Model the fold of this input.
Amino acid sequence: MSNNIRVYKLAQELGLDSKELIKYLKDFNLNVKSHMSMLDAETAEIVRHEIESILTRKREEEIARRPRIAVDFPLSLRDLAVKLGRKPTELQRKLMEWKVFAHINYSLNEELAGKLADAFGYVLERKLSDEEEVLRSHEQEEEGKVVKRPPIVTLMGHVDHGKTTLLENIRKLELTKKEAGGMTQHIGAYEVEHRGEKITFIDTPGHEAFTAMRARGADVTDIVILVVAADDGVMPQTIEAIDHARAAEVPIIVAINKVDKADANPDKVKKQLSELNLVPEEWGGDTICVNVSALTGQGIDDLLEMILLQAEMMELKANPDKLAKGVVLESRVSKGGPLVSVIVQSGTLRLGDIVLAGCNYGKVRAMFDDLGNQVKSAGPSKAVRVLGLNGTPSAGEQFFVVEDEDKAKEIAEKRKEEIKLAQQAPPQRMSLKDLGKQEGKKLLRLIIKADVFGSLDAIAHSLQKLQHKEEIEFKILHKGIGSVNESDVVLAIASDALVIGFNVGIEEKARSKAREENVEIRLYSVIYDLINDIQNVLAGLKEPELEERFLGKAEVKQVFEISKVGKVAGCVVSKGKIQRNVPCRVIRGDKVVYEGRIISLKRFKDDVREVSEGYECGIALENFSDIQENDVIETYTMLEVKR
Done:
């Protein structure tokens, strides 16, 4: 397969005149004779990179010298004209060149306004809204002031495998009694100390809550402790928890619990984990596994040791000397008003601070730690309950400290209005038909549910075989047995994934959630239909590799004006064949002045399909009347190259 390219074609690609490119090539010590010279693929790629770097640098230098104008949006054409010191009609004429027809009160979007400013020699800078200023101020981390912070840990695993009991034992406090089904009934966060170092544990009611928080942009967890019972082994919810943690790209430490029981079999658990690509360190893998007993306390110190070791490797740091930001863990209404549990990610939260969380705001009137003690401040990784907000923000909402209460109120009110508007349109989620809009290499995330393991393995294997390595990558986030459930949909929301079911149904809660959040679920009963659908979409998505094949060229000897036809070029075919209705280009000197198609080809008065070398012919071109004597007309075809 040839990827050679002619000099003039590369010049077009780079937005240069052929003479300019030839000068660059000679500067690179490349011997090229004319615009028709051929460059091999490797040389062309090097030239592209070098010249694009040169042009980018020149462009950046030129832009740096330009005057800047700051604008607010929405922005009318009239207002931009005033900023640019131009008449509105000048902007309208420029827009018409881009096939945009606008009146003087036309509301310009940022892209179009920026393009207009650029056309008139200015750089457009958008004034930040109050909310954007708040967010930007929190993003500016001062590297010199960052310090080590405690790790934030979440316990996950199957129901009844001992998550709550293990957390209780770690805290050495009997804070909760036996609860129905072993499911934690609230979300909280607790701080423990081991060897003088602190660890913050988030107590969630399952991996669904963990992922629902992540769907809101709250990546608060540093390490996941996967609790697996040594007697039961890996269960369906264990696999779900693993896949949710992997989708969040959070390291996993496995706590093999209940090793004190007579039927405990830690080796069986390790074998099951290895089959899920969680290979224990002692078996040559990189997954830390610790044998523990939540009841007796066996192995708890070892588990805490491993958490601190993992945290040390991660080098977790934050700046305590800035305005606080973090995540809401839970909120409820108490006698004293809304009580909001938060965890601080950076900065320090203090009494009297103005907090903005979602559509709620307020001044911190009181703070309590996990033991109920009043505190005056909370630094990075510290969890506290806050009293003083005017409402109850949802779990997963990010909070920010704002210096001005009026500004916090204004942002909160604006967010409420934006939510009302957003509710009028369904959220945009990934679908197969939308995948082709991705730039560059495509990524398709999948959640697969099937009736039996045999079907699941066959589907996963067949899908992986379809993967086209150059442009498309499959990422199977989770595969499991049984109906499509709410956990699957929540993971799809957080990860922008598709859900595929084979010989399974959809639970009502999952169906409702998917409809509400616009998550695509595809159900099949025949593997061929599933594979064929995906394959057809992939075939439509892949951009075919095309190769130009030269057909012929003709020299223009004379130009005729013919009524109802326009200009016709009288030519002699100098090489190959000239064919009708194929792509062509007109070359004038060393410059391509037209690319299009031949719409009429005649020999004398007869219409013909092709004319061979050495013969005369008359050629009419599609939408081009500037043909001149001595122009060269080249014809070619584009052939799809087999992969």
